[in-house]
Amino acid sequence: MIGSFYGSRIGIDMGTANTLVHIDGQGVAVKEPSLVTVRAGTGEIEAAGRAAEAGAGRTPRKLRTVRPIRHGMISDLTLCEGMLNRFLRRTDTLGIFRRFRVAIAVPGELTEVERLAIVESVRNVGASEVLLVDQVLAAARGAGLPIDEPRGRMVVNIGAGITDIAVISMANTVQTRTIAVAGDDMDTAVAAYVRGKYQVLVGERTAERIKIQVGSALPVAEPLTVIVKGRCLVNGIPREVALCEREIREALSVPVQHIIMGIREVLEQAPPELSADLVETGILLTGGSALLRNLDRRITAEFGLPASVAQDPLSSVIAGLAHQLKRLRSRDWRRFGHPS
Ligand SMILES: Nc1ncnc2c1ncn2[C@@H]1O[C@H](COP(=O)(O)OP(=O)(O)OP(=O)(O)O)[C@@H](O)[C@H]1O
Ligand SMILES: [Mg+2]
Q1: In the chain, domain spans
Q2: pLDDT digits (tens, 9 = 90+) for 256-265
């Protein structure tokens, strides 16, 4: 096989909520929650991904469910490597005689220390070369935008931990901003609202379910309600509450407003020629939180620019990495990679 000396080429989108792995020539081989279950005494990883998710919030005392990535950044290097290792083992990539190169998506604004942490964790699982790819560019490419053109376009990737906002032109970001507000903050806001108004505690996953089922960034025509169970703070007993769309829209208003403010800042700072292009090219929303009901319409209403959601926003980044892996030549890896 041509190129086999360098082994497989792998794309990784290691997000706060979900990790996706694409193997060139094979397709998406891993699509799992970024979660591990850890044994409390030894720190040993018992399960990763979906297997860890099944027990989240329900683990016995000797086990803990941990998210090794917070706000788009590695918060626990050892657990992150352990998780990646388990995911890659399932793909038959790892092995003493196996070589592989990794292109990994990263947020637009990163410190050198954060970049190094990502490179180190990927090298520690066995990659011979690592290429860091700006995730908004990957998302734009994956969503099918012709980003090589000399035309201004705006992409907003709203994940679980971060929102990456960029104006791009000629396959580069021209103006960017990364804010640490995204889907997780929406869940926290929903849980805080239910606690404040009904004195009922709901877990993270229930809060996420409420957001997905009845959350909206603008009023909806049809009445939406959801019934959830939580623990009553007053008497400690499980209780049911019914929540409607208007309440959850109110709960979500603060994180949604933060995202709008971030977009406004980037729009204000973009070079005038490129901003003029946006009237036609508009704003593309990617990342799982782009699926929040009516978020595209809300952004259009705020800025008077056409906004749309990518066809499969949870997979835009990995699709872009897959596309890029095919185009990379050996010298690109040497130029951008971090060889030891
Ligand atoms: N229908 C939906 N409505 C609202 N939010 C949704 C919907 N579906 C998924 N989400 C949210 O999308 C987020 C996950 O998206 P994604 O997988 O793009 O994030 P990530 O890449 O793991 O995180 P990040 O890029 O911030 O590190 C979660 O917060 C989830 O609740
Ligand atoms: Mg992401």
Answers
A1: 4-138+316-336, 146-181+257-314, 183-251
A2: 999 999 999 9
- Closest ligand to residue 189's CA: 1
Distance of CA 271 to the CA centre of its chain: 27
Contact 151, 169 (CB under 8 A): yes
Which residues, including other chains, have CB under 8 Å from residue 6's CB and lie 6 or more apart? 99, 101, 128, 330
List residues near ligand 1 (CB under 6 A): 15-18, 72, 159-162, 182-184, 208, 211-212, 287-289, 291-292, 314
Q: How many CB atoms lie within 10 A of CB 136?
A: 30
CATH classification number, 4-138+316-336, choose in 3.90.1300.10, 1.20.59.10, 3.30.420.40, 3.40.640.10: 3.30.420.40
pLDDT tens for each residue of 159-201: 999 999 999 999 999 999 999 999 999 999 999 999 999 999 9
Q: 68-107 burial string, b = 16+ CB within 10 Å, else e?
A: bbbbbbbebeebbbbbbbbbbeebebeeeeeebbbbbbbb
Q: Are 61 and 116 in contact (CB under 8 A)?
A: no
CA of 16 to the centre of ligand 1 (A): 9
CATH topology of domain 183-251: Actin; Chain A, domain 4 (3.90.640)
Q: What is the pTM of this model?
A: 0.94
Residue ranges in the chain modelled with pLDDT below 70:
1-6, 93-97, 333-340
The CATH number of the domain covering residues in 146-181+257-314: 3.30.420.40
Distances from the Cα of 324 to the Cα of 22, 71, 115, 213, 250, angstroms: 11, 25, 20, 35, 40
